[in-house]
């Protein structure tokens, strides 16, 4: 555990209402918050598993691209009558890409959009 993280922030992700899933540079899942574990419960404990194994060819290519180029990816999905925003982005250690973080949150079907220019 990074000793520079205040005790009050350790475990913060378990108390948010969206899924947080983190993989390392080798695509091994290294962290899942409470919501992520609930979302993927039917697959059992997948921490330590390679996330490439549960994605199609297009998704695997996108994952590899994000890891090699440092790009992010965002999209929405509808599943089971629920709309979600998925945001995937590299995380870095000492400026070097160390893996990916995915957040998945339920959003309203007709979410407002504001231009704040």
Q: How does this structure look, described?
A:
The chain is an alpha+beta fold. It has one domain (about 20-105): Beta-Lactamase (2-Layer Sandwich). The chain is built from two helices and five strands. It has helices at about 35-40, 55-70; strands spanning about 20-25, 30, 75-80, 80-95, 95-105. It has a five-stranded antiparallel sheet. Strand 3 (about 75-80) and strand 4 (about 80-95) form a beta hairpin. The termini are far apart. This is PAS sensor protein. It comes from Lepagella muris.
CATH architecture: 2-Layer Sandwich
Q: Which word captures the global form?
A: globular
Computed Rg: 15 Å
In total, the number of strands is: 5
Helix content: 10-25%
Q: State the end-to-end CA separation.
A: 40 Å
Strand line-up across the major sheet = 2-1-5-4-3
Oligomer: single chain
Percentage of β-strand residues:
35-45%
CATH secondary-structure class: Alpha Beta
Run of helices and strands: EEHHEEE
Q: Major sheet: size, sense and barrel closure?
A: 5 strands, antiparallel
Alpha plus pi helix count: 2
* Mean pLDDT, all residues: 91
**What would you give as the CATH superfamily?**
PAS domain
Low-confidence stretches: none
Per CATH, what is the topology? Answer: Beta-Lactamase
């Amino acid at each position: 555990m990074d000793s520079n993280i205040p005790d009050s922030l350790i475990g913060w992700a378990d108390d948010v209402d969206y899924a947080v899933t983190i993989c390392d540079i080798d695509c091994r899942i290294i962290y899942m918050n409470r919501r992520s574990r609930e979302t993927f419960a039917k697959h059992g404990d997948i921490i330590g598993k390679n996330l490439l194994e549960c994605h199609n060819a297009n998704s695997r290519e996108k994952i590899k691209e994000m890891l090699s180029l440092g790009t992010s990816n965002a999209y929405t999905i509808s599943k089971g009558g629920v709309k979600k925003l998925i945001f995937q982005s590299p995380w870095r250690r000492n400026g070097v890409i160390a893996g990916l973080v995915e957040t998945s949150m339920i959003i309203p079907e007709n979410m407002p959009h504001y231009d704040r220019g």
